[in-house]
Amino acid sequence: MSEDNLLPDVTETDIFSDYEKNPSDYIRCLYWLYVALSKRENYYEINSPTAFGDPEYTRYVGMVTGILMVTGWEEILTEDQIIIKNKRRKILVVDRIKRSDSFYKEKAEINELLRDLR
Fold it and tell me: Cα-atom radius of gyration of the chain, to the nearest Å?
């Protein structure tokens, strides 16, 4: 695992300083979304190769999904970024972690297994 290939802790972001200055509901949601999102994105890098299907990983996926549902925000995943939008306005842009080839190989194998189960 390379520490260089992880999203920074929330305390190292502008979100944290904004949260300390003004813990409004909006900033609180953004703060917890980033915490869950960074844990979800960093999970594979820290726990590879057993990340997929792990209950802890699934919990982070659920936390991100729940916050997005409650706020009405939308998550857009591009090759390089994770973009959180509120209607048309971008409210959070996070650079994605560069994934190793093993990440995609494992994901394809799991998808194949799931397809075979249907």
Answer: 15
Query: Are residues 94 and 7 in contact, defined by beta-carbon separation less than 8 angstroms?
Result: yes
pTM above 0.90, yes or no: no
Q: Strands of 74-77's sheet, edge to edge? A: 74-77, 81-86, 89-95
Cβ contacts of 62-69, under 8 Å, gap ≥ 24: 63/32, 63/36, 63/39, 64/33, 64/36, 64/37, 64/40, 67/29, 67/32, 67/33, 67/36, 68/33
Query: Which range among 16-20, 86-90, 100-104 has the greatest average pLDDT?
Result: 86-90
By C-alpha distance, which of 100, 96, 93 is closest to 6?
A: 96
C-alpha triplet 60, 37, 83: angle, nearest 5°: 140
